[in-house]
């Protein structure tokens, strides 16, 4: 049975189109700046940022994949590339023979410490400086609301 599509209204389409254009342009600019400034890809940055936000710079492989919303295969490839560059290491999980920890190496810690100040400055320049504190608060509430809504939806 084919249901009639629920097309977006012109207002909904305008909001959606603006959001997508802003997100794509912002992520594109931030990704290029990150690469130019640090030689690090956005994928490397997000993995190192999440690892170094933990107390011991380590996270279970599947927890990290879920946190960044990546499939297992994508995370495996990313970890392999980063391990070759010496940014992370994979360690066996002592209480789970099939599990593994991903650990930021000293080189990984240095790379994120070097990249983060420049990245944050670009985030400020391209994003937060464009909005008032009140607008940022509203955007955070909207984002949290959409995220919570998505969590309640079936896959």
Automatic annotation (TrEMBL):
PROSITE patterns: HTH_MARR_2. GO terms for molecular function: DNA binding; DNA-binding transcription factor activity. The keyword Translocase does not apply. GO terms for biological process: response to stress. Residues 1-148 form the HTH marR-type domain. Keywords: DNA-binding. It comes from the Bacteria. The keyword DNA-binding applies. SUPFAM superfamilies: Winged helix' DNA-binding domain. Transmembrane segments: none annotated. InterPro entries: HTH_MarR-typ, MarR/SlyA-like, WH-like_DNA-bd_sf, WH_DNA-bd_sf. It holds the Pfam family MarR_2. This is DNA-binding transcriptional regulator, MarR family. The lineage of its organism: Bacteria, Bacillati, Actinomycetota, Actinomycetes, Kitasatosporales.
